[in-house]
């Protein structure tokens, strides 16, 4: 393989869908969506409420089965794979609504994310010290290391989102999909999340961020897909997206 300079390098796909479709009753939540997200980039998926972002996300990560169409992860067909198998293939994810274990401590939540062999192992404290150290380092990175002994249910919503992000990162996924990481999070924590995403991207992690917060997406993302009614209506850089009349219409009804 010949080495390419950044100016001539052609971005390759990390995730491609072909006519992906999922309906709920009569609602076409995702409607023949064919999109590509790029390896090594911070990708964004935006769209008005109800445009199918979460359903798309759930189809791609195996949480729900699409009705038709296909999903390729690095060129490999993962359509209808079980979520754990997709995770093992390198796709880490977070949820729009937090999924932490409310009665476990923050540190315990981080440790279960790396899948101890059995719950007994975990309760018996058999995690290698390095795993615990890594968990603490990750908590420091997301800014909640001072809360390691607090129960997750006692954290603010924003702190729980940070915990969920931290636990998603514990398995070092090369590709991370985040569903509304900034939803319900206060501005200073949003800034922290943005900085962290950029740092991790610099270190080689590819992101796909599903967000309602246009400012965050425009600031962070190299490559943006805009959904409306379950399908892409625009694709490109922030500049391209922001001046696209179809995007303005979908958001503002102008
Ligand atoms: N489990 C479900 N059952 C029925 N309708 C659903 C379900 N999930 C999503 N929908 C509908 O599908 C559409 C897309 O929803 P969603 O994917 O959550 O959009 P977004 O994440 O962009 O806000 C909406 O009309 C929503 O009401
Ligand atoms: Mg959603």
TrEMBL record:
What keywords does the record list, in alphabetical order?
ATP-binding, Nucleotide-binding, Transport
GO cellular component terms, alphabetically, are: plasma membrane
Which GO molecular function annotations are given, in alphabetical order? ATP binding; ATP hydrolysis activity
Known Pfam families for this protein?
ABC_tran, BCA_ABC_TP_C
Quote the InterPro entries the UniProt record gives. Answer: ABC_AA/LPS_Transport, ABC_transporter-like_ATP-bd, ABC_transporter-like_CS, BCA_ABC_TP_C, P-loop_NTPase
Which CDD domains has this protein been placed in?
ABC_Mj1267_LivG_branched
Q: Which residues form the ABC transporter domain?
A: 15-254
Q: Which PANTHER family match?
A: CONSERVED COMPONENT OF ABC TRANSPORTER FOR NATURAL AMINO ACIDS (PTHR45772:SF9), CONSERVED COMPONENT OF ABC TRANSPORTER FOR NATURAL AMINO ACIDS-RELATED (PTHR45772)
Instruction: Tell me the protein's name.
Output: ATP-binding cassette domain-containing protein
User: Organism source for this protein?
Assistant: Georgenia subflava
């Amino acid at each position: 393989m010949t080495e390419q300079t950044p100016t001539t390098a052609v971005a390759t796909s990390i995730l491609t869908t072909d006519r992906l479709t999922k309906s709920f009753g009569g609602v076409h939540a995702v409607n023949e969506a064919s999109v590509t997200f790029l390896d090594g980039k911070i990708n964004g998926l935006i769209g008005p409420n109800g445009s199918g972002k979460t359903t798309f996300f759930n189809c791609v990560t195996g949480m729900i089965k699409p009705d038709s169409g296909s999903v390729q992860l690095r060129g490999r067909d993962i359509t209808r794979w079980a979520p754990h198998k997709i995770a093992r293939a390198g796709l880490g994810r977070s949820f729009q609504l937090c999924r932490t274990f409310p009665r476990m401590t923050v540190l315990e939540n981080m440790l279960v994310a790396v899948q101890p062999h059995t719950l007994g192992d975990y309760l018996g404290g058999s995690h290698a010290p390095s795993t615990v150290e890594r968990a603490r380092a990750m908590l420091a990175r997301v800014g909640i290391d001072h809360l390691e002994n607090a129960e997750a249910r006692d954290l603010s919503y924003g702190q729980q989102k940070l915990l969920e992000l931290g636990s998603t990162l514990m398995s070092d996924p090369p590709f991370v999909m985040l569903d509304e990481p900034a939803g319900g999070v206060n501005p200073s924590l949003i800034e922290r999340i943005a900085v962290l995403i950029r740092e991790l991207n610099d270190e080689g992690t590819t992101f796909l961020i599903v967000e309602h917060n246009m400012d965050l997406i425009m600031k962070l993302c190299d490559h943006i897909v805009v959904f409306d009614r379950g399908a892409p209506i625009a694709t490109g850089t922030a500049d391209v997206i922001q001046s696209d009349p179809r995007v303005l219409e979908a958001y503002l009804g102008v």
